[in-house]
Design goal:
The protein is of the alpha+beta class. It has helices spanning 32-35, 38-64, 66-69, 74-79, 86-93, and strands at residues 6-10, 15-19, 25-30. It contains 5 helices and 3 strands; from the N terminus they run E-E-E-H-H-H-H-H. The two termini are 21 Å apart.
């Protein structure tokens, strides 16, 4: 299986991240406009992008391992680092390849 990651951008693409399942940062790209956000704005943009990318990576992992994760409750998935806030689940679900979905 290929490495599962999730990517997201914030502030119109000024901040781009790629994370592994659970949120481990794989890459961070800041453009010149990102540096103009100031310390607090930049931190907020990075955290927002990481949260969204983590939801995507976690959802992709859940789909890829659906048979092995069957029957696990949300607490158990959270313990594995595979939880996702409800607000990001729809966005994450839309990035999951059709071949990984169940009928």
């Amino acid at each position: 299986m290929d490495k599962i990651t999730g990517g997201a951008r914030a502030q119109g693409g000024a901040v781009s991240v790629e994370v592994l399942p659970g949120g481990a940062l794989a890459s961070l790209v800041l453009t010149q406009p990102a540096l103009k956000l100031g310390p607090r704005g930049l931190a907020d943009a990075i955290l927002a992008a990481v949260a969204e990318a983590t939801a995507v990576a976690n959802q992709r992992t859940r789909h890829a391992l659906r048979a092995e994760l069957a029957g696990m409750n949300e607490h158990e998935l959270a313990t594995l680092g595979l939880d996702s806030p409800d607000s990001l689940t729809e966005r994450a679900e839309s990035t999951t390849p059709e071949s990984w979905r169940t009928s």
